[in-house]
Specification:
- This protein is of the alpha/beta class.
- The chain is 37% helix and 21% strand.
- It has 15 helices and 15 strands.
- It has a seven-stranded mixed sheet, with no helix packed on it. Strands 5-6-7-8 form a four-stranded parallel sheet.
- The model has no long low-confidence stretch (mean pLDDT 96).
Length: 404
């Protein structure tokens, strides 16, 4: 891994490029002090920029840097054995009795030290960055104690610093009930709200707060308790909502101005309307849908009709979406969920940025925004959704530096 300060500056005049929104026109981007100064048709470039240091894009297509807005990237171990067990016919209960499920990831995460978690997560992050990712959310939720949640979030911060990538950390202490709190979910939620979250927020490790609101996880009342604690600390909220059933979590999250509701396969009309009013982003996670062999599609047409912004993410995690390509998720969002190509690309750029509260700095190429964009060796934008297994990245400008 090259140190971030060794990445060359992207300052100068970028030509020989075509913007995805108008691929038939040669474009130009001016970068100064790591930020976009001007962008538009090459023929309209102001004369004052013509003498800047040149960067030839070689005819590449350009999009904003991709944003992976829902990941659980930092964890110990892996769960390929469970995948094999499920394929052989094992039930969820049988996997759990064999020591599998989220408890196995909690055990492995607690056993690993910070440097080990950093090394394992680095290998995963490098694959996502090679796919054009310029900003990423990383959740905790496999520690389920103050010590180990802190460890996960510290690793997430280290990853951002080491790789020069924007990392938004999300505290997901209410992900599952740890074994030592079996049958005592109320006591555990009290611990999350009164001890874990305040301590981690005071250490500057939390950018947002998430809850897994589901029958196998936490109730609406417990979710609201966490949301109130987050609000008291001035932290935005997100929600794992309506993945397995309709519990009304999306409507609750919307009342708290949630940045996003994620999964949402069972989202109701009432939930959609609440999200529309609050401006909450619907985050689609086709990798989990695919891995779990789900058949209950998210209400895409209703979300589209209501104008609810739809983001797309990998949901990288060891149990239900071991995905390491955001471009593959673009393809899946189109093939499985019937998104159009523009919808899918907006889903990993502008709407994904909004799902993280990063709409002022990521998801677009505009004057005044940090330079985060990707040059692709493709002729048209549809190829970014069409191919899978290809690696079309020509260059990545991340935080004003040429990272690839």
């Amino acid at each position: 891994m090259k140190p971030v300060n060794e990445f060359p500056s992207a300052d100068g005049l970028w030509t020989g490029i075509r913007l995805a929104a108008d691929a038939g026109v040669e474009a130009a981007i001016v970068v100064e002090q790591g930020a976009v100064r001007w962008v538009g048709a090459r023929s309209a470039l102001p004369a004052g920029f013509a003498g800047l240091a040149p960067h030839d894009g070689g005819g590449a297509l350009v999009t904003p840097g991709l944003v992976d807005c829902h990941t659980h990237l930092v964890y110990g171990g892996q769960r390929a054995n469970e995948f094999a067990m499920r394929l052989a016919g094992a039930t969820y209960e049988e996997v759990a009795k064999a020591g599998g499920g989220i408890v196995s990831s909690v055990r492995a995460t607690r056993e690993a030290d910070e440097d080990t978690l950093f090394a394992q997560a680095s290998a995963r992050l490098e694959q996502l960055l090679a796919d054009g990712v310029c900003a990423i959310e990383i959740k905790s939720g496999y520690g389920l104690s103050l010590e180990h949640e802190r460890k996960q979030l510290r690793v997430a911060r280290r990853l951002g610093e080491a790789y020069g990538v924007t990392v938004r950390t999300t505290f997901l202490g209410a992900h599952a009930l740890p074994p030592e709190y079996a049958g005592r979910s109320g006591e555990y939620i009290d611990l999350v709200c009164k001890e874990m979250l305040p301590a981690l927020a005071a250490e500057g490790l939390v950018d947002a707060v998430d809850v897994f609101c589901e029958r196998i996880a936490f109730s609406l009342a417990e979710t609201e308790q966490v949301f109130k604690a987050a609000k008291a600390l001035g932290l935005p909220v997100k929600l794992h909502a309506e993945q397995l059933s309709d519990m009304g979590g999306a409507a609750l999250a919307a009342r708290y101005g949630a940045l996003s509701c994620d999964h949402i396969e069972h989202l109701s009309a009432e939930g959609i309307e609440a999200m529309r009013k609050s401006g909450t982003v619907a985050v689609l996670l086709p990798g989990a849908y695919y891995t779990l062999r789900d058949t209950h599609l998210p209400p895409i047409a209703a979300l589209r009709a209501a104008g609810v912004p739809m983001a797309v993410s990998t949901d990288h995690n060891p149990g239900t979406s071991p995905a390491l390509s955001l471009l593959l998720m673009v393809n899946m969002a189109c093939t499985l969920f019937c998104l159009t190509v523009p919808e899918a690309l907006d889903g990993v750029t502008v709407h994904a940025a909004r799902a993280l509260g990063l709409q002022d700095t990521h998801g677009a190429i505009a004057p005044g925004m940090p330079a985060n964009f990707v040059l692709w060796n493709v002729r048209e934008a549809a190829e970014l959704a069409y191919w899978f297994g290809q690696q079309p990245v020509r260059a990545v400008v991340r935080q004003g530096r040429i990272a690839i």
